[in-house]
Amino acid sequence: MAKAKKVSLLERGQRTITAEVGRIPIRSTLDQSMTVQYAEQLQNLVALARSVIRDTDPQNDVITLGVCSKSDEIIVATGEWVLAVLQHPFLSA
Amino acid sequence: MAKAKKVSLLERGQRTITAEVGRIPIRSTLDQSMTVQYAEQLQNLVALARSVIRDTDPQNDVITLGVCSKSDEIIVATGEWVLAVLQHPFLSA
């Protein structure tokens, strides 16, 4: 099963960015400019999502954020760190 | 299977909002003030997600947006209309 899983991740063109909250990314499989651009934009998106959540429940917090578009899927896990995974939404045929 | 599915939706406290893009909501299972607040905030969130997506690919667009928090899950489907579904992330025990 592990091999099949690894193949499916690679086929979905998975790229990852790890960053400390509100800071410059630490690790990324994207080039430098894309990494900095995505890291900043995704942290703004998480901050806006957090404000939406906390407007109704100040004790609540965002755990994950997902954006599915026509050609990409972005999943952001938040906490002490921010981990963003970018991948194609569907396995290539 | 249909009954089990219906039960699981109700147990997850599902609430929905339908709105024309950029306009006041048309249908909602939430009260008026919560509906207007969520509709506006979620459309801002979709707009920001759209700008993140289109910065790298102007032809691309957001299909769905999901925010999972400690106590709620918000799923927004975009297109001609905006449909937002709010539910508890896990089935109540």
Describe this structure as you would to a colleague.
Chains A, B: This is Roadblock/LAMTOR2 domain-containing protein. With 93 residues, chain A is α+β, with helices and mostly antiparallel strands. Chain A has one domain (2-87): Dynein light chain 2a, cytoplasmic (Beta-Lactamase). Chain A has helices spanning 2-11, 32-56; strands at 15-20, 25-28, 62-69, 73-77, 81-87. The A-B interface holds A 34, 37-38, 41-42, 44-45, 48-49, 51-53, 55-57, 60-72, 74 and B 34, 37-38, 41-42, 44-45, 48-49, 51-53, 55-57, 60-72, 74.
Overview features:
Roadblock/LAMTOR2 domain-containing protein (chains A, B); alpha+beta; Roadblock/LAMTOR2_dom (chains A, B); disordered N terminus; homodimer; 93 residues
Shape of chain A: globular
Number of helices of chain A: 2
Sketch the topology of chain A as an H/E string, one letter per element. HEEHEEE
- Largest chain interface and its two residue counts? A-B, 29 and 29 residues
Per CATH, the class of chain A reads: Alpha Beta
Total domain count of chain A: 1
Average pLDDT for all residues of chain A: 81
Strand order, biggest sheet of chain A?
Answer: 2-1-5-4-3
